[in-house]
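Structure ticket #2291
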Amino acid sequence: MNADQSPERTPDGHHVVIRGRKWRATDPSVPEETAARLRRHLMSARRAVRSATTAGDEQAERVARSRVNRAKIALGERGTPWWEESEDERRRRWEEGLESLDAEDDD
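Resolution: structure written out below.
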């Protein structure tokens, strides 16, 4: 897969296949601008995990891993499967996740 290609999806669209491994796909109902902001939070949190791990800072690592989890839940990649949620539940999930992550950045 090239960087400009989308990953392979399972026939039901619920998962992507990357290097032979299935991962839950991002909820397609998340607006692209919102998904992009959530992915930026996710990448920032992953970098923070790496930095904290390298520094041996367990508290910072816990905080960073919590941010990774909140971003993945907001994207629909963790938690209740997005295809089992109502449209309102799905919208509330990503709106609240983004609000939480944005508020943390303001601190």
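Closing remark: Strands lie at 8-9, 15-18, 21-24.
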